[in-house]
């Protein structure tokens, strides 16, 4: 039986999946090397906002090079996996209006410490795909040897 081909997601479908995800990954270039950081985030006005502390993630994100943001998941009920990637630029929220508005976002650090820098990823490219997970892989995961993340 031929494998089903991945389905390209529309921009609206991509944003629906982003809104459902709890964790994303921020990809940046730091010291000429790729780095990937897990982040919690919120969707705000057609962009993704996260908060962070001083450090490599913040410096690399704001360096001016393009960044990428990725979320993925698995719907066990449908046996379908998906992945969404945003590519664009990152800007720190600095205007008083943006800072006050960001304080109202439901965005809370998971780690203790000062995470006072709010960063917005403005996407210029949104892409995603979904695909059926083959039955052998589904059986493997259903046996509990390695659970796939669940998407609600």
UniProtKB/TrEMBL annotation:
InterPro entries: Pyridox_Oxase-rel (IPR024747), Split_barrel_FMN-bd (IPR012349)
Name of the protein in its database record: Pyridoxamine 5'-phosphate oxidase family protein
The organism of origin for this protein: Arthrobacter jiangjiafuii
Lineage: Bacteria, Bacillati, Actinomycetota, Actinomycetes, Micrococcales
